[in-house]
Design a protein that fits this description.
Shape: globular
Strand content: 15-25%
Helix content: 25-40%
Largest sheet: 6 strands, parallel
Radius of gyration: 20 Å
CATH topology of the largest domain: TIM Barrel
CATH architecture of the largest domain: Alpha-Beta Barrel
Structural class: alpha/beta
Number of helices: 12
CATH class of the largest domain: Alpha Beta
Strand order of the largest sheet: 2-1-3-4-5-6
Length: about 325
């Protein structure tokens, strides 16, 4: 009989998540499902859109950010009381694995692709390890995520990842620690093939910065946007670029023509001293005095902006 695997995205119970993109499907779980051998019976449960009934299973995999970690631990504890093994991954467990291991049977540190099948083999052999440390692998020939396992249709039914990692060192950001400081990119044609296969008109580029870093990455972004136009994909999409998204007019031209309608941009602060303190080098290079000009250029191309800012709260 096939073993059952539940992959769970927990709900943030404190209701502090005000992200406009909070309605996105958990693509990390869809990737893990794609890497799971076909003899497993797999189900994705997303508490942001459905209730968790604690159904019987053989193994539970949970992803969590810091805001969802308390609920992830609670879910794990309930399953462990039933004698069911639990595995946790994601940014919170990767950064605080000694904390996480108090609540789960095994912790995946970092990106899970390189260790997932070994973990499943160890589970089947009753030799599950306390920790698995994933390697940052090439993104060429990345498996196609099991979107068919999503429980419902989301606001943005699909999200697409084209790259991972960031060479910057912004003080508040966890991306370099989790995904590394090397900007790893998927081949453009593979990304275009994936977008073309989507059955929905709207999607979200889940890259932490779709625009990339450096001239080579900038040209890749242009190639990607131009390719979407040339293939006539007729999709509407949102993304997360850096503030220098608007520096090269070709970037905005092809982004608009490819269907971009919204960009989530980290302005962080209008105070240069504050930007220096958080090591926001790219914003300093553009200059806070040019923020209005940048915004106007993006708006002139029919692209809405969601601005992110960092506030320091001092208790007296």
């Amino acid at each position: 009989m096939a073993k059952k695997l539940l992959l769970i995205n927990p709900l943030q119970q404190a209701k502090l998540n005000i992200s406009v993109f909070s309605g996105l499907p958990p693509i990390c779980l869809a990737y893990l499902a794609a890497l799971t051998p076909s003899e497993w019976d797999i189900k994705i449960i997303d508490e942001t859109v459905e209730s968790l009934t604690f159904e019987d299973t053989d193994l539970v995999g949970i992803t969590a950010m810091t805001g969802t970690a308390p609920r992830a631990y609670e879910i794990s504890e309930q399953y462990r009381r039933k004698g069911i093994k639990t595995v946790m991954g994601g940014i919170h467990a990767s950064m605080l694995y000694d904390e996480a291991t108090q609540f789960v049977d095994s912790v995946v540190i970092g990106e899970a692709e390189s260790v997932w099948q070994s973990l499943l083999h160890d589970f089947e052999s009753n030799e599950l390890k306390r920790f698995y440390r994933g390697e940052r692998t090439s993104l060429e020939n990345l498996v196609k995520p099991r979107r068919d396992l999503y429980p419902v249709k989301y606001r943005f039914k699909d999200s697409v990842q084209t790259a991972r990692g960031c060479p910057n060192d912004c003080e508040f950001c966890s991306v370099p620690a989790f995904n590394g400081r090397t900007y790893r990119q998927r081949p453009v044609e593979e990304v275009l093939d994936e977008i073309e296969a989507l059955d929905s008109k709207f999607f979200f580029f889940s890259d932490d910065n779709i625009f990339g870093y450096g001239e080579k990455a900038e040209q890749r972004a242009i190639q990607l946007f131009r390719g979407m136009k040339e293939r006539g994909l007729n999709k509407r999409w949102a993304c997360q670029p850096g503030i220098d998204f608007a520096i090269n007019p070709e970037v905005l031209k092809y982004a608009q023509e490819a269907g971009c309608f919204a960009a989530f941009i980290g302005f962080e602060s209008i105070n240069e001293e504050a930007l220096q303190g958080m090591h926001k080098v790219r914003n300093l290079k553009v200059g806070v005095g040019h923020y209005k000009e940048i915004i106007k250029k993006i708006h002139d191309h029919g692209i809405g902006i969601l601005g992110a800012f960092v506030f320091l709260i001092i208790s007296l």
